[in-house]
Design a protein that fits this description.
By secondary structure, the protein is α+β, with helices and mostly antiparallel strands. The chain is built from 8 helices and 10 strands. The protein folds into 2 domains: 96 residues, Hypothetical Cytosolic Protein, Chain: A (2-Layer Sandwich), CATH 3.30.1230; 146 residues, 2-Layer Sandwich (60s Ribosomal Protein L30, Chain: A), CATH 3.30.1330.
């Protein structure tokens, strides 16, 4: 697998599909680690101003034209790299010859962009009818094994979350396994705004492809705000989607025989 440091965007869109194990990888300009694009954040340059200087900005969806530079560090690590000048040096090497302005609040800008990307992705899944909302409906679908991924708002109550987690385990035939839904780094207010609904506390996806689409922006956000390099929660969502698809195929096969 080729792992170039940076190259034109045409081949570095992490959402482009294909097998996850053979997806594109990039090298973090700060740590030198080579990792899947879905666990990194892309930085891009704004068009040069009258003074010829380009601002370094987050490209949360990895769709901005031109070359990009990838980072795979937490918000705290990025803030230290900015303050100590390490990021500027790494960017100067990545964007050779470019005159750069590195915003002092770049770490905050990255977090806001990643939160917005996740909220927008969930909003799209809602508009396409792929999101399951309402505790009673989620519980029923989960018990029937028709939930690919289960999510709880950051401020969701423990009792309600445990009830739905139990329904998820029952539907998967995994009682006693400790399987739970993923607690999102978005509270109910942010989710309600993103989805255009009132008081969104829990949500689920029945479609394994939708779960994969949500897992990417979720993984990037969790990596950045929590510094979780392995991002077990996001990986669990992907595995949950795969398990749900297999369960659905098994149930369908049994119903037609």
């Amino acid at each position: 697998m080729r792992n170039p440091r940076n190259e034109p965007l045409g081949s570095d869109r992490p959402e482009a599909g294909g097998d996850r194990d053979e997806g594109p990888e990039r090298r973090c300009i700060l740590t030198g680690e080579v990792r899947p694009c879905e666990s990194l954040v892309r930085l891009a340059l704004s068009p040069p101003g009258d003074d010829g200087v380009s601002a370094v900005l987050p490209d949360a969806l990895a769709r901005a034209p031109g070359r990009g530079a990838w980072i795979g560090v937490s918000k705290d690590e990025l803030s230290r790299a900015i303050a100590g000048g390490k990021l500027r040096g790494a960017l100067a090497r990545a964007f050779k010859g470019a005159r750069l302005n590195v915003p002092a609040d770049l770490a905050d800008l990255v977090e806001k962009a990643l939160r917005r990307a996740l909220a927008d992705r969930l909003g799209l899944e809602t508009r396409f009818g792929r999101l399951i909302l309402g505790s009673d409906r989620i519980e029923n679908e989960a018990r029937q094994g028709r939930v690919a991924a289960l999510y709880h708002a950051a401020d969701a109550g423990e009792d309600g979350s445990r009830k739905l987690d139990q329904a998820l385990r029952v539907g998967r035939g995994e009682e006693g396994s400790g399987l739970t839904g993923k607690r999102l780094p978005l509270d109910r207010a942010a989710l309600s705004v993103a989805l255009g609904r009132d008081n969104v506390v829990h949500l689920a996806l029945a479609d394994d492809a939708s779960a994969r689409r949500v897992a990417g922006p979720l993984q990037r956000l969790v990596n950045f705000v929590a510094g979780e390099r392995t991002v077990s929660g996001a990986e669990d969502n992907i595995r949950s989607a795969e398990n749900a698809a297999q369960t659905s195929r098994t149930v369908t096969s049994g119903a037609t025989t």
